[in-house]
Amino acid sequence: MTTIRENDLIESVAGALQFISYYHPADFIQALGDAYEREESAAAKDAIGQILVNSRMCAEGHRPVCQDTGLVIAFLKIGMNVRWDASMSLADMINEGVRRAYTDPSNPLRASMVTDPAGSRRNTRDNTPAVIHTELVPGDLVEVNIAAKGGGSENKAKFTILNPSDSIVDWVMNSVPVMGVGWCPPGMLGIGIGGSAEKAMLLAKESLMDPIDMHELKARRPSNRLEELRIEIYDKVNALGIGAQGLGGLTTVLDVKMRDYPTHAASLPVAVIPNCAATRHAHFVLDGSGPAELEPPKLSDWPDIEWKASASKRVDLGQVTRAQASGWKVGERLLLSGKLLTGRDAAHKRIADLLSRREPLPVDFRDRFIYYVGPVDPVRDEVVGPAGPTTASRMDKFTEMMLGQTGLLGMIGKAERGPDAIAAIKRHQGVYLIAVGGAAYLVSKAIRASRVLAFPELGMEAIYEFDVQDMPVTVAVDAEGNSLHAIGPAQWRRPPIRYK
Fold it and tell me: If you average pLDDT over residues 48-64, what whole number do you get?
């Protein structure tokens, strides 16, 4: 009989969450490096290059690969012969590990969890609680798979119950385009088939922790129906031409993972959950000998890439006019310098409430740019921690208000905008720019100063003013309403792949 000590589990969870905040799995680095070498789209290749450079910087600096350091999900298999030397419950031990990881002063991680989700949505400040799934199994070990799942990818999860005769492939292929690209491709798709509604979702989530092996699978050829489905969906999704960050290109997914479970004869539950370019998960086993130790990837695992910020023009945010911005063309690359405002969901809701009550705004937005970001707290000599863009479509319902009532000139985020937001941008001769999701630490190096201007109680969702120098962005929606996320993939879409 194995005895597992309370602190061994706590320290193992805390250590694993710190580890995955700055180390990508080695299989992901290899697969992304291979995609970089194959990519023919210049925009997509540049985006993948930024993600890989950011990944290595984070490994060297022990800072988060993404500002969204995630919702913690833990899958535990506990041997039935295990004895616990503990006074805390299993959930309390896991959550204490989360608390220690996310409040570690050497590398604080962003707290994103909110309580009272249908009401006050108050931040818990330490990213607890985790979502925990536990299974009792034979043996005397504790096996843990732990992940930190970002909101951008988690929000794109899809579920359905098909008729048994329906096509799983057709449903997935109809679902992927409507996900948009807020999940930051290139990443992976996890697919769960069977069981019940909740079981299919768990299968999809757990499959994302399986190793990337698509190229090996193709080389040895499929040996069962699930492997055939994996290959078919992988090829067909990449043929859509969505590409890295939705800019158009050859690689949208690095792998398709799949698990199944017996189901009712009348049902075919299917779930799909994407994993983003900030893939974060780790596996460890406790055998009673002490806390788990994880082996980091070698720096030689990263491809040798030299990335430099380049652009067709440099923009002074303090001097740019609406007439100048209206001349920018979709796909054009810019380097921004000057004063940049920030704000996301909670700040936009506060602004809307103030306007509805005809109360003054705490910030003058006229002819300014706002960056959709919730940064990580700084450490050492940093002025701000990793500060990559959040999914812009969540702010679509506020776009008309911001452009029409506050005088805002432009917005910076990631992923596509919806038709109403694009119409508002065209109507007000505004502009929408994108930064690369999954390159948060790299982006933060362009930020030279930071201060809170409004709503400090919102924490990372407060309105900041950043002083940026040569921040790389791309015009994603221009003043004429042209959208890069429509134009780019259309150029790289390939004819449908047909299978016997």
Answer: 96
Cβ atoms 390, 370 nearer than 8 A:
no
Angle at 34 between CA 31 and CA 35, to 5 degrees: 90
The yes-or-no verdict on residue 169 having pLDDT over 70 is yes
The CATH number that domain 313-487 falls under is 3.20.130.10
pTM tops 0.85: yes
Q: What is the pLDDT of residue 499?
A: 56
- The percentage of residues in the chain with a pLDDT greater than 70, rounded to a whole number, is 99
- CATH 3.30.1330 residue window(s) in the chain: 151-277
pLDDT of residue 498: 65
Mean pLDDT of 204-221: 96
Q: Which residues pair with 286 in a beta bridge?
A: 142
User: Mean pLDDT of all residues in the chain?
Assistant: 96
Residues of the chain with CATH 3.20.130.10: 313-487
27 burial (CB, 10 Å; 0-12 / 13-18 / 19+) is middle
Taking 90 as the threshold, does the pLDDT of residue 307 lie above it?
Answer: no
Mean pLDDT on 53-72:
96
Q: 151-277 has which CATH code? A: 3.30.1330
Does residue 240 surpass a pLDDT of 90? yes
Backbone phi, psi, residue 363, to 5°: -140, 140
392 φ/ψ angles, rounded to the nearest 5 degrees:
-70, -25
pLDDT > 90? residue 474:
yes
pLDDT class of 464 with cuts at 50, 70, 90: very high
Q: How many residues does the chain have?
A: 500
